[in-house]
Amino acid sequence: METTPSRDYAPRIIALALIAVLLITLSTGCMLPSRTQHRSSSVVEFLYPGGEQPFVDPTTPTLRLPLRVGIAFVPSAQRDFRHTAEALPGTQRQELLRQVSAQFASLPFVASIEEIPDIYLRTGGSFENLDQVRSLLGVDVIALISHDQMQGRVENEWSFAYWTIVGAYIVPASKNETHTLMEAVVYDIESRSLLFRAPGASVIKDHTTLVRSAPELQEDSEEGFAQASTDLTTNLADQLERFKVRLKEEPEAVVIQHRPGYTGGGSIGSGFVIILATLAGWRRWTGSTT
Amino acid sequence: MAALDGKHDMSALRWPTLFLVVPAAITLAVAGANAGLIADRSALSGGQLWRLWTGHWVHFSTTHFWWDVGATLLLAGELERRRPGISLRFAVIAAPLISLGALMVRPEMSAYGGLSGLAMGLATLLSTELVRAGDRDRAIGWLLGGLVMAKLGAELARPGIFVTFVDPAFRAEPAAHVIGAILGLIHGKTVGRRRPMPAG
């Protein structure tokens, strides 16, 4: 009588298959590669390119009011694009420029706002590049906007379902995180002095399927920039108010000069009024009559 | 600076309040009102002559407004108690002269605003009235006059010594104070002098 070898080994084969599945399940997180993307531009790298370049010694800034303000995005220093996606999307750049311009335009001591084209700033251009911009466009003060966005994707233990192919479409086992940091740094070009800075930040986390991961990351990137831009413009408004107060309370920190065309105001001053009131009160107390 | 009969006469504040304080308050409260009322050089050249008067209603901050209004009410109130109508007459005559004078003395200034020029004029006008009144009022009159002179001297030597605006767009301008003070003195010595009552 003949025996069927497969029937005898079937339970062992099944057991080995289950063990293999279990091992695959436990090690799935290590097998599917995580994905990261990084987009950035740095004010420090733009102004102080290379480690050997000495720091510029800023002098006391002299602001000639009304100011002519330039706004520009810091060029990215990254040359390795293997893990670098597109920089800030064009529509968002324009929207951010519009919002920042509106903040400065609301100030009566700002005469004009110039949006500086990207081609005017070169990577690592430093203050010499800013001097050239100042000569070309006549701006006194420049607001440099930089960004840094890191995106990452990690699969959790449910990602074993991706092996079923169907699971890659319906199981949200991929965790996306998008960290965005933006900054507006305002410099007085002539004195190389930092006047003030305003940051903006956002964090976006969500879960998605393997198939939707890339499009979701792209959407998260745009949303991250949008939220960080909003945060930046809010902080910029606050910093501009603080700067106005600082101009008054710390006159030694910034020298103010008025160009022709300023608005003059007569103000009697608190001291004079107090003395007047004191005189009036004293006369009434002494009961003088005419 | 009590009333003539020793009583508080709030009606003395009626005309200064109505023609100086209330319009200034409305101008401060209404957004964009400053632009249409300030003594702007180019607008005046274009024929908007009302700005010679309305520019004095324009203020650049609430503190600017309150200190100017406070001084104006103290000075104009006392003047009105002594000579009803004098502060209004002075304001109508002096306001355009102060605005014109400030813009002429400072050709680089494009616009001017604030009640303080008129207030300084009211101060010197009151000073002449007090000195003329005699007795204890004369001492106060001289004291007030000296205070005005000291303030003007300090401001001319160092503009902005007493006042700086929070907003750096605006610059304290003492020329209007000087012009206002001179006009107040002239008004007190000449136009504002009481005419002697006819005999019989």
How would you describe what is shown here?
The complex is a heterodimer of chains A (290) and B (200). About 3% of the residues of chain A have low confidence. Chain A contains seven helices and nine strands, in the order αβαββαβαβαββαββα. The longest helix of chain A has 37 residues. In chain A, strands 1, 3, 4, 5, 6 and 7 form a six-stranded mixed beta sheet that branches. Chain A is elongated, with a radius of gyration of 31 Å. By secondary structure, chain A is α/β, with parallel strands linked by helices. Chain B has 200 residues and is mainly alpha-helical. Helices cover 64% and strands 5% of the residues of chain B. Chain B is built from nine helices and three strands, in the order ααβααααβααβα. In chain B, strands 1-2 form a two-stranded antiparallel sheet. In chain B, α7 runs parallel beside α9. The radius of gyration of chain B is 17 Å and the shape is globular. The two termini of chain B are 33 Å apart. The N terminus and C terminus of chain B are likely disordered. The chains are: A alpha/beta (290), B mainly alpha (200). At the A-B interface, α6, β9 and α7 of A face α5, β2, α7, α8 and β3 of B. β9 of chain A pairs parallel with β2 of chain B.
What does this entry show, briefly?
The complex is a heterodimer of chains A (290) and B (200). Chain A is of the alpha/beta class and 290 residues long.
Kindly provide the radius of gyration of chain B, computed on alpha-carbon positions and rounded to a whole number of angstroms. 17 Å
Regarding quaternary structure, how should these chains be classified? Answer: heterodimer
Main sheet summary of chain A = 6 strands, mixed
Helices and strands of chain A, in order, run as: HEHEEHEHEHEEHEEH
Tell me the fraction of residues in β-strands of chain A, as a range.
25-35%
Regions of chain B with pLDDT < 50 over 5+ consecutive residues?
1-7, 196-200
Report on the biggest sheet of chain B: 2 strands, antiparallel
How much β-strand is present in the residues of chain B?
5-15%
Nearest-integer average pLDDT of chain A: 81
Q: Quick one: which chains have the greatest interface?
A: A-B, 39 and 60 residues
Distance from first to last alpha carbon of chain B: 33 Å
Which strand order does the major sheet of chain B show? 1-2
Number of helices of chain B: 9
Could you name the ranges of chain A where pLDDT drops below 50 across 5 or more consecutive residues? 79-86
